[in-house]
Amino acid sequence: MSSVLQFIFLLLCCLNLEAANLESFSTSEDVRGLTLELVFDASVKASISYQSKGNVHIIRVPNAKSPKFKGRQELDHLLAISFHIKPVSGALEFWFYPRGFFGVSLLPQLDSQTIRIHAKNGYPTREEINPDGRYQVVCIDPGHGGHDPGAPGSKSVEKQVVLAMARQLRSEINKLPGMKAVLTRDADYKIKLEDRPKISDRVGASLFVSLHMNSSLPQVRGYEVFYLSEKGATQTLEARLGEAHSQASETLVSSDSQETNTIATNSSESILQQIIFDMQQVETLNSSAVLANVLADHLKETGRRNRGVRRAAFVVLKTIDTPSVLIEMGYITNKDDEAFFTSEEGKNRVTLALAKGIQSFLSKNDIKPAKKLSGNPAGAVEPAYAVYTVQSGDTLGNLAIRHGVRYSSILAANAGLHPDKLFVGQKIRIPVLNE
Ligand SMILES: [Zn+2]
Predict the structure, then answer these.
(1) Exposed, middle or buried: residue 256 (CB in 10 Å: 0-12, 13-18, 19+)?
(2) Would you give the DSSP letter of residue 145?
(3) What is the largest CA-CA distance in the chain?
């Protein structure tokens, strides 16, 4: 009898245990990845599970609640989209949505009240891919992905066609002596346009090639190679945005409506300033022009129609410090082009031509990988930052000029910073030059 009483007593004690409250959360980043830290006001224990449907990692904390924070919390990072706080029968669940398919794990607890969730940065660092600097690294960027399918064809969609092409181009490039290729995505997920150059920077690429398929009227076919326009960017931008709204064609920004709106509501002056500033390295721009022409020439070997080398203020090209082009390989809305790009022969011919073009360009031009912008190999000295409070009228472009650093290095130093959403009083990190 006494043991039954004891049991009831223990049970009552357990039920009366105060639930731990979520006090705060924060993120930090280093070269290994992104860490989300959750701090409670009492001891907690967590477990993690993975649900492939939705690509979500669920962290369960029994006997906890969250009076301060509810629902979806944005992370807006290259490695993670968001996490959701869900109370589930006396426990708290954190549904963590990574951006890609790299590992997510629970780190050992710092103390009994702090849980740490870690999203691994699965992109190789330049030291990993190229330890003794013998290789020239090419960053291949298959456009779109995830819930941004790109242009629709009759039997295929752009995000799939460009991923298949990118994978094959990578294997062609990897066959060439002294060259290595890395993809910005090797699966079907969405990467924000402004995050794609960060991957190119991390891997120390000498060159960046974004692959796309265009859409138009059924009879239009052929390829176009774009490099960044720094002149008349405002006009081009608006014209292109007009196109974006009137048709689901390849545009300046991805077909993701959120990104389109973001750019559309930004003042055109600040965009112009950013773009002009980004192109401060005229050399990069000239190299991009040469690269665009070399690739357009090599693509002639595929027998496809050359629609020419053009310039546009594509977002994905605008923070790149290496020669960079965006190729509209063909029109997915044209039956011949679609059939060609989804055939083995078509894929072989185009990727071979591009690999040869890239090799020819790199052999004739002395292209050095861009100077390191951010991140550091494990054990290396942490990059130095100054914290700056945003004032009225600031843009990332003029901050970069004023501090003598690159626009892209400010972006790289501030996880989740959106260049078009600066607000007065916001604290941002400005890299301190130590070279
Ligand atoms: Zn596209």
Answers:
(1) middle
(2) B
(3) 91
Which tokens is 330 given?
């063909």
The CA 360 to ligand 1 mean position distance, Å, reads 26
Residue 384, Cβ neighbours under 10 Å: how many?
Answer: 12
| Ligand 1 center–CA 393 separation, angstroms | 33
DSSP codes of every residue in 170-192:
HHHHHHSTTEEEEES-SSS----
Rg for the chain, CA atoms, rounded: 24
| For residues 309-332, average pLDDT | 83
Tokens of 358: 């890239």
Predicted confidence (pLDDT) per residue in 347-399, tens digit: 999 999 999 999 999 998 777 665 554 443 333 344 577 788 888 888 877 78
**Cβ pair 172, 355 in contact under 8 A:** yes
Rounded to the nearest 5 percent, the helix, strand and coil shares of the chain are: 35, 25, 40
Q: Kindly report the CATH number assigned to the domain that includes residue 71.
A: 2.60.40.3470
Output the pLDDT for position 249: 30
Residue 320 has pLDDT above 60, yes or no: yes
Q: DSSP H helical segments within 247-279, as ranges?
A: 257-265, 268-278
Please tell me whether residues 287 and 415 are part of one structural domain. no
- Domain span at residue 417 reads 385-431
Residue 8 domain flag: no
Helices then strands, each counted (H, E), the chain: 12, 18
**In angstroms, what is the span from residue 117 Cα to ligand 1's centroid?**
33
Cα(207) to centroid of ligand 1, in Å? Answer: 19
CA of 95 to the centre of ligand 1 (A): 30
288 shares its domain with 356: yes
Cα(241)–Cα(232) distance, rounded to whole angstroms? Answer: 14
Residue 353 is assigned to a structural domain of this protein: yes
CA of 213 to the centre of ligand 1 (A): 5
55 located within any domain: yes
pLDDT, tens digit, for every residue of 251-267? 333 333 233 322 333 44
